[in-house]
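User: Predict the full complex structure for these chains.
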Amino acid sequence: MSGLLELRNVTKVFGGGIFSKNRTTALEDLSFTLDTDQSSITSIVGESGSGKTTVARLLLGMIAPTKGHIFYKGNDVAEMSRVERKEFRREVQPIFQDPFEVFNPFYKVDHVLKVPISKFKLAGSAGEERSMINDALEMVGLRPDETLGRYPHQLSGGQRQRIMVARSLLLKPRVILADEPVSMVDASLRATILESIHKLNRELGISILYITHDLTTAYQISDNILVLYRGSVAEGGSVEAVIKDPKHPYTQLLVGSIPQPNPDLTWSERTSVVPVANRAVTGCKFADRCDSVMNLCWNNVPPRYQLDRYRVAACHLFQDSPVMTAADVSQVFAARTEMSGQTPSGK
Amino acid sequence: MTGDVLQVKGLQVYYGTREGQVNAVNDVSFTLEKDERLGLVGESGSGKTTLATALMRLIKAPGQIKGGEVLLDGKDLLKLSNEKMRQARSTEISMIPQGAMNSLNPVMRIRDQMIDTLRDHGVKRTKSEFRKWAAELLERVGLPKEVAGMYPHELSGGMKQRVAIATGICLNPKVIIADEPTSALDVVVQREVMTTLRLVQKELGASVIMIGHDMGLMAQFTDRIGVMYAGKLVEVASVRDIFNKPLHPYTQLLIASLPSLEAKEVFRGIPGRTPSLLNPPPGCGFHPRCPKAMEHCSRLVPALQKMATGQSVACHLYDETTDSTDSPGTSGNGELKIAAPQH
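Assistant: Here is the predicted structure of the two-chain assembly.
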């Protein structure tokens, strides 16, 4: 499997020197590949402190790993030449959470669409530039005559976010990293924006990494999912299996806590056990909140057990399953072509 | 109705801007029963937070309450003196505003902030009585008493939000208004906070108005839901009716657009955008986006009418089917019923 964008044994620690008490391990030894052969949509979900945003920032080259490497098309991001870096910047595009912060309020929104065109010389003439912009806007459901010429504050959050998606379209990136793209957007507009992002994948073959704490939209839009808990992988695999039939107790807690828009489907019985404050965690990080915790869990970090072709769970409940040998957790992700007709158990 | 704790009648809140008048809350009427949990949903700009602020009489210029009544146990809050309203806030009607957890004073211990609120309302006790009160309040929201001596930055988002709830209920109000109480909180913490709110409400025998746009949360928490659009209430019904048989086209589209674990890769966004309140569309505010708009929808404003099923809806589609046994003026639910103009 050829890697497009790859995290290899990446650990990221924030804060303090070796002897400092303020060190936080945001990510611990994560290996993960976004593939060139099949463009799929992968979600990385977790609560705050899970490390999911750190993954995005590492993959965008905004921060450097403490250990391990980030590769783009086989090149280490930390050691790229200027040419390689420029290509990387163009081909790996973000869509951030806040649809206001990314806009310079002094410029009309046209600016954010024109700059990439001129920087990467995407258009041969002003006429071509204009039609490229119009096409991109229309593809995300925006009317050019109602959008161009306006300042950011004159548009709604949903419109601004759609402009960011349109901008991605102009650049035709290989990968889009969308970090909570709809959490600050009104509920009724979310579907439209998610649909645009989904189209980028299905129609243009762009790989999407969708980072969120919203499991429902993650389920809706993605093919594969990685559930992170405090910097480590809790569970991963096909989104259909992981969300509909979660195996790791943490995933079960997350799925059970989703407020279903159905008054007859109330929050499940599973509740979060209040953490035991003074118990040092040397084993499984979820031990102090887990209602299935065993003696073994406190002092032994669970390896990733492979439950079937498309599922991995780092939990001692599955100690009878084989341990996943590959470090790269995306080995359990299915290519889209393999997914039709797949049952929730993945068999 | 004797079971009603709050009756809002014809509330109007306008903002004066340089470009003209914005009718942020445009003739809104509804009731809130004792022990009831009412959800108010709507997009940004629908008027829901303005409505909440108006109920607390905290609207500031250039906003102004232009008309209507807000009857709390029969007493019109809009007619109270400033001093009496100040007393009513927190003791009778209390608000946990949006982002409350972020408005905690970073240089004060939690206990001192809570005591401040009590003192502000003229409660006079000894220092040790206040400390005991604060500890009890924290316990009621499921927080350990150690939290009292902590500073906000030592608490997680969920804990801070529970402190905000504790502060909001400290004087045992009859009505609690929670404005987006769990936005920015993770789904597990969100559930814990909502469970706390429900518990606290039951203990107090209070009623809750929850404002938000997360329909999933509304489904889990509320008994009835009011849908706001462009400053008006377009539908009010029991939570099951809203989800299972929504009447207003906007509610129908809203329910259809909700991401669901039952429908993968199905995206049903609502086309168009929310109207400008500066130049609202004539007639029904929703007609430009409405798939069922009729000719007169762009001329005549539909009134909120009560159906035989108990649902109230403001839509010309239902003009002929109003419950004719109600007397003009009020419907069984205490909502003002204005005869819809017949064409």
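Residues 187-204 of chain A form the longest helix (18 residues).
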